Amino acid sequence: MANQVLFLQSLYLLFSIFSLPFLPLVMSSCNDPCQTLDDCEGQLICINGQCNDDPDLGTHICGGSPGTSSPSTDDCQPSGSLECNGQSYPTYTCSPQVTSSTSAVLTKNDFSEGGDGGGPSKCDDKYHENSDPIIALSTGWYNGGSLCGKMIRITAQNGMSVLAKVVDECDSMHGCDQEHAGQRPCDNNIVDGSNAVWDALGLDINIGRVDVTWSMA
């Protein structure tokens, strides 16, 4: 009889253990430093250089409570304005938060010498062939050159995607001068791509501006 009681107690203990709710294992800690989306394990993602909750998954590991909305991209407000050819344009030091699928606007840039891209690329102080899949990022995303040489994946609404290398900044603070080929400051959500990027995405480069998403490759 005693053996039967002990056996039943053991079964009850095992049942209790396996009935506990499953908790996801998070290998990285909140606010740990990171450089790419893959640096943060579990359900965390690299946002602005730190491991944080993934807004696409709706996780709340790093604070907040269920139902708390993630920071809006509207949190990036203009830092000032610049007069250019009789018009006033907003300037930005920031860009929307980087996620696993960051919304952006693809524009066209000429990275060759004498092109509409102005001076040489900031990452390496060189000009580049437009047949290479390369891009410039708005000032906030460029982040002082921290993404120079990194590959990002750009995805168009037609489902096509391309890997492109970051070689330059699309300046969101300055413009309308010789260095910027007379062009206005970039918006804060620009991926400025070469001809090769547009071609790989199957897009008409004459359109000039197309909504896309991007992520670290």
TrEMBL record:
Family per similarity comment: Belongs to the kiwellin family.
SUPFAM superfamilies registered for this protein in UniProt: Barwin-like endoglucanases
Species the sequence originates in: Vitis vinifera (Grape)
Location, primary (coarse class): secreted
GO CC annotation terms, alphabetical: extracellular region
Keyword terms: Secreted, Signal
Keyword Nucleus found: no
InterPro entries on file: Kiwellin-like (IPR039271), RlpA-like_sf (IPR036908)
Signal peptide: 1-28
The keyword Hydrolase appears for this protein: no
Chain positions covered by the region annotation Disordered: 107-126
Protein name as it appears in the record: Kiwellin
Protein's cellular compartments: Secreted
Alphabetical list of Gene3D superfamilies matching this protein: RlpA-like domain (2.40.40.10)
